[in-house]
UniProtKB/TrEMBL annotation:
The lineage of its organism: Bacteria, Bacillati, Actinomycetota, Actinomycetes, Kitasatosporales. Keywords: Methyltransferase, S-adenosyl-L-methionine, Transferase. Pfam families: Methyltransf_2. This is Carminomycin 4-O-methyltransferase. GO terms for biological process: methylation. Residues 180-339 form the O-methyltransferase C-terminal domain. One of its GO terms (molecular function) is O-methyltransferase activity. It comes from Streptomyces leeuwenhoekii.
Amino acid sequence: MLPMASSQVRVKSHEGDESVARMDSVQQAAIDLLGKADLITPMALRVAATLKLVDHLEAGVTDLPGLARVTRSHERPLGKVLDHLVSLGVVERAGERYRVSALGAPLSSRCDHLGVRPMLDVEHLIGKAELAMVDLLHTVRTGAAAYEERGVTLWEDLNAAGGGAPGMDAFRRTAALFDAEAIAEQFDWSQVRDVVDVGGNSGAVAISLLQAHPHLTATVFDLPCFGPAAREAIERAQLADRCEVTSGSFFDGLPPGRDVYLLSAILADWSDEDAVRILRQCRRAAGPTGVVLLAEVHLRADHPDPVHRTAAALRIEASMGHPDRTPADLAELAARAGLRVTWEGRHTPVRSLLALRAETELR
């Protein structure tokens, strides 16, 4: 039993009513803090989402034995989860039967476009990434993404899960976001023949570049799990004759000899040491004449409510590790990789643009 877990607890004092009142106030503060730190409600909601309880209720399985059977769960603990969901107003109970409430409706798979159930499903890739927030202490102590407390990076897990894993679509960039249009508009592409989109994901940025500059050809380079979606997007854009997809890890090497190596929103996910490793691989592939084009994001939470704003800032920090490097920070990393800044674009609130070239030949 947790200490001070009930508002019925009282503290005896011989120092008078003022002291008793003060202790009651501290005791209530302790109860309030425990309420804010409660893990039972968040995990009960995640159990409901993962077991798709609302889907089963909507399908007509409305009694506890039936729900335990279809979800392959133990009846007793599942019943206690349902009791708690009733107390929260997520489901309603009439006799031995349960039904979905208005509050619980977003937990239906029919509403997955809202993102609620996938974020709470601990077997879904989005849900796994969200649950990594319990390892926020790892981020605070190391500066690395919370997910890495598990011994792997999110990207390694995504690649191991494969392109068809539930939730994989959420990690595919289907649009060029965070002022990515600045990449096509600001940099001088007129003398560039070919570009490698390093960590190009589903090819959204490469496609936008090719559409803006018809003389360009491109290679989308990323982990194998992103290859099928990238090829499909390129085919859909009717750019297969100008864009190829190559799979691999940017830590192991890149296709050599291209004019530009684009890093769009990549380094924010990595530590300084890993960012330098990535930049060195780009430098190696670019050689003495190629350009490494950094189009890095720097994300900050923006919300009028301080609770939401600070929570969002923590989520960004714990998810990305280095979400807000400045242009000066990026230039310093580039120097450590043997690259110098040769051009700097107009920075937007969420995007920095730097062109880099090798200082000397890298062995």
